[in-house]
Write a structure and sequence with these properties.
This protein is of the alpha+beta class. It is 22% helix and 36% strand. It has a six-stranded antiparallel β-sheet. It has a five-stranded antiparallel β-sheet with strand order 4-5-6-3-7. Strand 4 and strand 5 form a beta hairpin.
């Protein structure tokens, strides 16, 4: 399996763009999982993963190189170093849950710079002001005509996770937004 992962090519290989206000780059390859668990299982699954699963809307937590994003009362999106086996890690919890590897389904795009928020806001209806979407905030929302997971990594760094089949469209829409953010 490791041989296949090392040969995996991102749908956005060679893509780069943006403007002086917001740089766009494909995120490095990563392991990703969709996790569902009943509130009674959160502590056990958190311990097995090495990160405390957040339990409040729009929040995230990072630990052991893993970022867990709250998407719903019993749902999280996990991102970690390439090769992380979230399914096996969660299974060690002994708690009832569902963990599905979605590493090959998703593509991450990083938006960095003083115009990053404006770039993302160009096609996202979510309130992305600091008061409503501080550093560490995350949500499942729409960007243009596609569903994304949006994560604010730092004051000027945002991460958009989209399905691989929408990667070109998403990158193009973000590039347009980055161009507009420069004005």
């Amino acid at each position: 399996m490791a041989e296949l992962n090392s040969m995996r090519r991102s749908a956005l290989d060679g893509f780069h763009g943006g403007s002086a206000a917001a740089r766009l780059t494909p995120a490095p390859n990563a392991a990703r999982a969709s996790l569902r668990a009943h509130p009674d299982a959160v502590a056990a699954v958190s311990a097995a993963l090495g990160v405390s699963l957040p339990t409040k809307p729009k929040t995230s937590a990072t630990g052991a190189g893993i970022t867990a994003m709250w998407l719903g009362p019993d749902e999280w999106f996990l991102i970690g170093p390439e090769g992380t086996d979230f399914v096996a890690l969660a299974a060690k919890s002994g708690a009832f849950h569902s963990a599905v590897d979605v590493s090959h389904r998703n593509i991450g795009i990083l938006i960095e710079g003083p115009g990053a928020r404006v770039t993302v806001a160009s096609a996202c209806p979510h309130d992305l002001t600091e008061a409503s979407f501080p550093v560490g905030a995350c949500t499942r929302t729409v960007f243009g005509k596609m569903e994304i997971v949006l994560y604010r990594e730092s004051a000027e760094t945002w991460r958009v996770e989209c399905w691989r089949s929408f990667a070109d469209y998403c990158f193009g829409m973000l590039a347009e937004g980055a161009h507009d953010a420069a004005y």
